[in-house]
Design goal:
Strand content: under 5%
Structural class: mainly alpha
Low-confidence stretches: none
Distance between the termini: 119 Å
Number of strands: 0
Shape: elongated
Oligomer: single chain
Mean pLDDT: 78
Amino acid sequence: MSMPRRAMKNMGLQACCLRCDEPDDAGSIRCKTCIGHHESMRDRIAKAPPDDAFYQFAKELLTMAAAPHRFDNDPVHGRTLEEQQILASKLVTKPSPITEEDIVETFQQQRSTKKSNLLQEVANKNQWKNSPPKPDAARHIGEEAWRDEDLDNSEYHTGRTIPSQNIPSVDRSDRVGEDKKMVARADIQAKGKGVDQELLDIIEAEEIHQQRQKKEDWKSTLSDVDNLLNDD
C-alpha cells in the first residue's frame, strides 16, 4: 500500500494507490507510468458519448472511487468502498491526545501574550489625553504648527457665494401673482366645449370683470382696515 499520489487524487483514483504493491517512493518510474495510463483512460471516458452504456458504467465507478464515503451504502460496491476508507485511514497520522497539562499551558501562553493596539498606543503618548491644553498653550501650538500663508481662509467660504458689492433689493410690488385673464380663459374654454365661441367670449368677459371687481373690493377692505389701525 502506498500513499496516494497527488495526480491520482486529482483524478479521483486514489484507490489504485491504496491497493498498489509498489514501495512508497515518490517519483518512481512505475508511478509515472501508472499516472500516464490513468490520465489517458480518464480523458477517454470524458470524451465518450453520453449514451454509451459501458462508458456510463465507468463514470459511475469513478464517481464512487473518488468519494467512497458518499456511496458506501451501495448494495454491490459498498463493502469495497468501506475497505478503501479503512486503507486510507491507516495512512493518516493520529494526533496525540490532549492532556490537562496541554490545556493549562495554552491558557498561560494566551494570558502572557500582549495584544498590541497601535491606535491606543499612540493615544496614550498624548500628553493632553486626560485634560486639554490651556488656551495660551493651544494658541502657541497653532502658531508653531501653521504659518499664515499655510492657511487658506477662502476655503471656509466655498459653500456659499460672497458678492463683491451690495446687491439692491428687487421691487416686487408690481407682481400681482397669476394671470387672472389667462386662468379664466383656460377654465371657460375647458368647460365650454361644444358651446358657440361668441357666447364663450361673453362669459369670459363677465368672469374677468367679476374677478377684477372682487380684487378691487378686497383692496378697499384692506385700506379700511389700515385706516382703522392708523386711527388707533
